[in-house]
Amino acid sequence: ACKNVLNRILHQPVSKLFWNSVEDLLLAENTHPLSLRTIHEKLEGNTYLSPLEFVLDMHQIFLNADAHRSKKILRSPAADFLLSEFESAVEEYSIFTSDISRHLHTLSRDFSIKPPPKADQDLNSNGHDLNKTDNANSSDEKIASIFSPGEPSIEGIHENLLLLKGHPFFLEAIFFIHSLKPETISLDNTTKLHLSLLDEEQIPIIHNKIAELIYAAARGKTSL
């Protein structure tokens, strides 16, 4: 099913802009340089452990669209078009169960974050439902005004992820967490991130990465 989805993308002429796009990225400013060729090779080599890894790699292609050299000005609108095609193909070829497919096209808005171990209740019951936008940043200035990095902790990661809600960097943060600890993401009736599964040594690494993303968002950036 993942191969069918990728083939749908590769049949679009604009996909050629992303086939060998790694060499055109400003690598010093992008931590996840990817190309469609790389994803194709990973699929052919059966190196993906789950469909979710494929989906996150594809989303990274779209996140990278603004990080290419300015001479490749077609890449940003091309990525918007391919993202729409990608979401349609995922639904058509049923990569996930119907429940997951229903949520995939709004991945950055529908993620729910399971609270730290000391708070057993669901986020919906303590006012931090990520499907609502009242805690989300409405502007870059708001991010800058309310963000304080603090000491690395699961609670801090949770709160700082809420600040990125609705910003393109939210998926970047999720991708980074997943790359360090894939089992933090569960796929049931909705897609959830279980921060309590993080290893102690991973917490400061993730904390610093999210702080970097928030500072970049406050400067008006949409890609690193």
TrEMBL record:
It comes from the Eukaryota. Gene3D superfamilies: Bromodomain-like (1.20.920.10). Residues 111-137 are annotated as: Disordered. It comes from Coptotermes formosanus (Formosan subterranean termite). Keywords: Bromodomain. InterPro entries: Bromodomain, Bromodomain-like_sf. Residues 122-137 have a biased composition (Polar residues). Residues 111-121 have a biased composition (Basic and acidic residues). Residues 2-65 form the Bromo domain. Signal peptide: none annotated. This is Bromo domain containing protein.
